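4.2 Preliminary Data

To establish feasibility before requesting continued support, the project team ran the inverse folding procedure on a target of 209 residues. The structure was first converted into the token representation described in Section 3, and no sequence information of any kind was made available to the design step. The complete token record follows.
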């Protein structure tokens, strides 16, 4: 029969062994719990960072849309300003008297237009040239024929009798007082010249150039 002291000693040894055996298990469980908690915390951090990144991308996208709209508005504004400036330039050109603004009076003719720089062109009725002489004698002849229209000078330098440009032509082809089309508009034949013998269809248009 064992002594109580031996029994107590055996019990103590057994308890200690059990405690030693349990300690690694408990340590492993604690370590696993800590690892799991750390992983969950990292996952939350990643989710928050991803959400912040998506929010920033949405903000950038909104800015791009606003930039595109602003660019379209600026383009429309530039076009409108260009159109207005073009109209102003046309108005300013009307102040010159070298025939450069003749397009204002020749909307029905889409060919070359006679100017001081061009010298001569082929117009709707044939060759066109220009001359600048005192028209008082020519106007007197037209008055004698019963034409009392006002003599004046158009903005582009064309000498006018009423609504028509004064020109010289071959009187056998275009009698005095006849209306004939030119690149500068409708002319009234008031005069003639030596050119008419060389080219019976030529018009010599009276201008201030």
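Position-by-position output of the design step:
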């Amino acid at each position: 029969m064992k002594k109580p002291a031996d029994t107590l000693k055996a019990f103590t040894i057994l308890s200690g062994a059990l405690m030693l055996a349990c300690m690694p298990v408990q340590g492993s469980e604690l370590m696993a719990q800590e690892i799991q908690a750390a992983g969950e915390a990292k996952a939350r951090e990643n989710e928050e960072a991803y959400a912040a990144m998506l929010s920033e991308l949405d903000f950038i996208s909104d800015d791009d849309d606003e930039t595109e709209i602003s660019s379209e508005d600026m383009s429309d504004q530039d076009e409108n300003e260009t159109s207005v400036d073009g109209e102003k330039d046309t108005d300013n050109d009307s102040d010159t008297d070298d025939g450069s603004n003749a397009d204002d009076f020749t909307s029905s003719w889409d060919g070359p237009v006679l100017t001081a720089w061009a010298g001569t062109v082929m117009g709707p009725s044939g060759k066109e040239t220009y001359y600048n002489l005192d028209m008082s004698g020519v106007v007197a002849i037209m008055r004698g024929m019963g034409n009392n229209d006002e003599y004046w000078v158009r903005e582009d330098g064309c000498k006018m009798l009423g609504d028509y440009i004064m020109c010289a032509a071959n009187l056998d082809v275009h009698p005095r007082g006849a209306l004939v089309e030119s690149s500068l508009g409708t002319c009234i034949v008031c005069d003639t010249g030596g050119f008419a013998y060389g080219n019976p269809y030529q018009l010599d248009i009276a201008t201030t150039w």
